[in-house]
Amino acid sequence: MNLKAEDLQWLQTPSARLEAELCIKAISKMFKIPTLILLLACHTLSADLREIYRFPNGTWIENIAARTNGNLLVTLINKPELWQINPWTRSGHASAHLVHHFDEAKQMNGIAELEQDTYAIIASDSVWTISLGQNGGASIPEHIATFPSGLLNGMATLDGGRAVVLSDSERGLIYRLDMQTGEYTVIHQDKTMAPADYLGLQLGINGLRVARDYLYYSNTAKRLFCRVRIDLRTGQAKGPYEVISGGVLSDDFAVGPGDVGFLAGAMDNVVTKVWPDGYHEIAAGSKNSTLLMTATSAAFGRGKSDRGVLYVTTGGETELPVNSTVTRGGKVMALAVDSYV
C-alpha cells in the first residue's frame, strides 16, 4: 500500500500523535521491539529526529561515543563527569547514570575507544583511560599523560588503540600520544588548524575522526571541515591538508559510509551533511529551532538495532538560548539517517 502525504495529515495533531505513540509502545511491549526503533521508523511523528535523554538545566554535553552494547557515553563541560546512557529500555524512556567524576579536572572533552569497552578520555589538560563492563561497572581511571597549557579538545584512535591523536584548539595543532608510555609529540600543525576569534576566544582545530586512512578535523572558528591522509600507525601525514568544505560551522562530527561527514553545527543548531566533494546540505535542525540547540558532537549507533541512527549531543539552551526566551539542559537526540547515507 502506497501512502501519500495527505493520507497522514491526521498525525500532525497532538492528540493523534499521542495516540500513535501509545499504540507504538503497546506494539513494542507485545513483540519485544525497542520503542525507540519503532518511533524512529515513524518519520511523520518526528521528522526523523527524536529526543533520547535530557540533562538538568545548565548541563553542557561535549562529546559522545557509542558502545557495541547499544549504550552511549557522554562527557560534560560544566562538570568533569563521564555519563552512560541506555537509550533502549523497554519503557521507551532512556536511563542515565554517572560513570565517574574526575576530581582532578574542571571539564571533560574528547573520548575515543581504544579497544572494546576501554576508552581514552580528555579531562582538562590530561588523558585518562577507563574500562567498562557490560553490566554498567567501571574500572578505576588510569592517568596516562598531562599536557602543557592549551585546550585539549578532540581525540581519535590510532595504531589499533596503542595511540591516540588529540587536537589542541588554542595552539592549533595535533598531538600523537602513545598510550603505553605516555609520551607525546606534535605531528600536525597547519594553517587550516590555526586559531581565530570565536565568541571572544582564540580557538582553532576542534573535532577529530579517523576514517579509512584519513584524519578528519574541523576548525570551528574558521568554519572549515578538512582531512589529511595519514599513516594509521604513526599518524604522520602522507598527503596534503585538504579543505573539504568551507563556510559550514562545526563542533565535533561523525564520518559515515562513503566518507560523508555529519557535522554538529554548534550555534547554528543543525546537523550538516558534507560529501567528499564539498557539497553540503542540512540534515536536521534550523537556526531558530531548539531541537539541536548548540549541537556539539555526533556518533553512529553500533548496536544491532541502531546502525542507522546518528546520535547528536547538544550543549542545550544554556549559553545562547534561542531568542533568549528559554533555557534547557543539554540532551542526546537520535536522527534516523538511513535515508541520508
From TrEMBL:
InterPro entries: 6-blade_b-propeller_TolB-like, Hetero-Diels-Alderase-like. This is SMP-30/Gluconolactonase/LRE-like region domain-containing protein. Coiled coil: none annotated. The lineage of its organism: Eukaryota, Fungi, Dikarya, Ascomycota, Pezizomycotina.
